[in-house]
Amino acid sequence: xxxxxxxxxxxxxxxxxxxxVIAEGMMTVAGVEAKAFPIExxxxxxxxxxxxxxxxxxxxLADLCSAVKVWLDGPxxxxxxxxxxxxxxxxxxYLHGGGDLGIQTILNHMMVLGMLTYSGGGSFGKPVIHLxxxxxxxxxxxxxxxxxxxxxxxxxxxxxxxG
Length: 163
Description:
By secondary structure, the chain is α/β, with parallel strands linked by helices. 39% of the residues lie in helices and 23% in strands. It has five helices and seven strands. Strands 1, 2, 3, 4, 5, 6 and 7 form a seven-stranded mixed beta sheet that branches. The protein is globular, with a radius of gyration of 14 Å. The termini are close together.
């Protein structure tokens, strides 16, 4: 089984919910085992063995939350992320609240850490997920299918690269 990880920080539970949905989408791909962990309590061994790591953040003031930034600047350095497929997602209160900016910041950090960032972009057709999915507060239920699809696309690409 190929291991994959979804890491997240969540205060209200919204980001946790969407992380679990992404992990569910990953597991729709044959041969994949995925788990979601809060960045405050992640399984180092599992992450090191994972071929794909997706990181999620709630958005505050049009950017990723400080807990995710601290994780990227510290603990992520011990996670053996170089060479893995990386992706990002966000939850936000507003449509133009900065979800894409937070995702891009995570992806930039991932590239600096040597990860192969991926989202699928427009290569799968619609729905297009250019950087990563963003779920809005009060609209989680209607976002779940997009997040499942994102997890499936991330897993499909990872299996094609490492399977």
